[in-house]
Amino acid sequence: MAAFTGRDLLSLADLDADEVKQLLQLAAELKAGKQLHCNKVLGLLFYKASTRTRVSFSVAMYQLGGQVIDLNPDVTQVSRGEPVEDTARVLDRYLDILAIRTFEQQQLETFAHYAKIPVINALSDLEHPCQILADLLTVQECFGNLAGLTLTYVGDGNNVAHSLMLGCALVGMNVRVATPAEFVPDAEVVAQAKAIAQNKTEVTVTQDPEAAAKGASVLYTDVWASMGQESQATSRIPVFQPYQINEQLLGLADAEAIVLHCLPAHRGEEITDGVMEGSQSRVWDQAENRLHAQKALLASLLGVE
Hints:
The protein has 305 residues and is α/β, with parallel strands linked by helices. It is 42% helix and 13% strand. The strands form two sheets. A five-stranded parallel beta sheet has the order 7-6-5-8-9. A four-stranded parallel beta sheet has the order 2-1-3-4, with helices on both faces. Helix 6 (159-171) links the parallel strand 5 (150-154) and strand 6. The N and C termini lie close together (8 Å). L-ornithine binds at residues 159, 222, 226-227.
């Protein structure tokens, strides 16, 4: 894993196909009981609310033998306008690795430019790469192999959709993203995913959720209004209603299909309670795998052996 040491993970596109496979293999080994140890310090700088990302990163670092400092922006000089460039250079002198959850991808890139330590994207408005590493681990556990499978995402063309397109393209999965016309994913990310796929796998954006779901191995959704968009939540419901993962949509997928949701879920909106609690749901395994995937990521970027 020496090739990972000291690097940043700001986008899944920062990895190549072999590196994703190596991370997933290490995550599986750690989940099975492999022990690694480090005496390092992880900083968490979260400008947005978090449950799974915050807790899974913390537990992962503690299980590796390291320590975690929660850098709440509200009680640091960041809240008083200290420039990102200055904060980054100071934290670089104290920490061994830094995970940031923020609104702007540019802020992550600025931190990475001014800090020599590894910087991890723990969610931005553009991407959510750590989530997708856990998703791919979950799919791999269910099907044994990723290449050739089809994952269908329905809902908002948001950060999760972006990272799913990149991640699926990297591992040789087909990916279909079905969204309302006014909520399509970023065109540059779509083009990037298609370039990675090199016409060997399918990267499709459509407004037809039923066509996208037909024969899929994985159905995936997320909330219809992401963090920072809460004021739009009610107005979005009628627009997104045809994109709900319900029993009817699941019936169009492959008979052995699984259902994923990155959580938190608004049951009755983007997913029905019956599907989320049904036999094909792997939502809780997916949530657990945040811990194992991120532990593998931390160990790799820190050069832990």
